[in-house]
What we know:
This protein is mostly beta strands. The protein has one domain. Helix content is 10%, strand content 32%. The chain has one helix at residues 24-31, and strands spanning 2-7, 10-16, 59-64, 68-73. It has a four-stranded antiparallel sheet with strand order 2-1-3-4, with no helix packed on it. The termini are far apart.
Amino acid sequence: MRTKVRLNGREVENFPTGDMIFDAASFISETSRYVTFVPGDVMWLGTDGVPENMKVGDVCEVEITGIGVLRNTIVGEK
């Protein structure tokens, strides 16, 4: 599997998902010991590169081979 990250349609990351230091299940399990998750929460596990800065209105897409694409528009806090 590969993880691809696009910002406003431009690919900014592309790496083998298996190269992540922590798998998603372990990360969620450990984090849930300290945080209560609610529907709509998004967890970002990071990338293996230098992340791009995002601003309000940008569209961030994360695609994982065989799973699909998560697409979100960046909004400001109220």
